[in-house]
User: Fold this.
Amino acid sequence: MCGIVALHAPRGEVSSSALQAGVGALRHRGPDGAGAWVSADRRIGLGHTRLSVIDLATGQQPLATDDGALRLAVNGEFYGHEIIREELRGRGHLFRTSTDAEIALHLYRERGADGLHRLRGEFAFALWDDRNKCLLAARDRFGVKPLFYAIHGGVLALASEVKALLAAGVPAAWDREQAYQLITLGVPLPDRSLFKDVRQVPPGHYLRATDRGIRLVRYWDLDYPPACRRRPRTDDDERAFIGRFGAALDEAVRLRLRADVPVACYLSGGLDSSAVLGLAARHVGRPLPAFTVAFDREDHGDARAAEAMARRVGAAWTPVRVGQRELAQNFEDAVWHGETAFRNAHGVAKFVLSDRVRRAGYKVVLTGEGADEVLAGYAMFRGRPVRSMPWWTRQLAAHARRHRGLLDPGFAQEFAQHDPYAALLARLDGPGQLEGRSSLIQAMYLWTRSVLPNYVLTVGGDRMEMAHAVEGRLPFLDHHLVELLRDTPAALHGRAPGKYILREAARPVLTDAVYRGRKRAFQAPPAALEATGPLYRRLEAILLGGALASLPFYDERRVRRLLAGVPCLDPARRAALDPLLMEIASLCVMHERFGL
Assistant:
């Protein structure tokens, strides 16, 4: 895993100093080396910071073909690259390194953008085609790896994180519409960011830039079949399907164990991460290291179940104690790395966990993220069709009401006619992705295309892990596995106690407690429950500081009045306010740290 920067000036020149500044802003993603290349005509520049995981000796980037016609900077991993490499060699391609990234160069040379269909993994990359004067920038199918872009002064800038674009000269300002979308719906627009004029290459898309302009192209989507094409289930179908799923998941785990450095696992004690650890343990000849967040409140997290699971498979288990003090000390840094608002301190806990893992000497971890999305693990997925009533309505309606009572009147009036839910649907209902699907499939599709990349994989994944140069690998988001799941009989998705397919497929490697247990969300204890605790005091200090006065979204007096009444509320009402206070505090941190 690494960081990438690309600057493209089709009618001007790129600045070497701007490129280097962008690269420097991503050193936390790749502390093992850095490289930059600018073309002779100065129309294109690529930069890279390296986290060495595969081919530790010769994997420096940007990479180039032997004739220099193609240049490449990659963030991520391509699994099964050895097989593709041998196929390409058999067709006459010459490789200069042993790194997995180089297959993307040769697939492009042979197939152009269609070569993306052969890539398997979590990735974002920028590739320059000198013959056609074309920049191709692609993002993996689920958006595990981030990829932002902006146009400023006639230069297209792309990078793994917004802070690199700002370092390269893109001005810092709020995207007010995106902020309103996030505040009132809780779900941001998936192709935007909270920064003005900074957009994202959506998951499963590539950006093509030439002197004629920029075009976004979708190369992959979930493509759930309509309900009328789903076959009725039989018991034989069920057993066969669970067997195929188990084999596919096992392969996805095995491929993600491939590295030239030691690999560890994140273990929450729940079904998803326990299944990954259990399957991974079968493929290694030594105890796998497993790291678990152990909150100081026993009603949050499941450290005991994690310890028992680690003992079951012979893993070397390390609990990472995370209390209010650790969350308070790391809150602002985590927000800066995440570049978005937090609604619970679980992202901060992941930030602390990743720091501990890197200090223990590990660069690569297997994680269980994505299982709830592709296996219908959330209870809220089962409801009415999304077009008539959003499946998140109850949660988000309360969220929106609390926010609207605190909004700055001018800001609220500016977007009085904006329908955040309609705006989200307009961007997400790809060609025929919702029509004719059950409410369950509609909900899974919308969540996977919005909340998963823009919240779950941000504050619970890449940005918290790569803040400490730790590469997260996600077997449940292997697209071969997900394409198998597309034809899952609906009855299997809905069977209690949830994620029945995974539960049965992984049963041989699970403890009985994990196999029979119900889903517990990975949530940090609400800060507002302890109004005298370190985390709440830190949030209070942020909200009483100068940033709130200049933050353009909220009425400062109303927020302060709400804050003053928190200690008088009963515990349940204090806990209910926690996401609101944390979100406002996050926006204050961003406002101050990024100079917005």
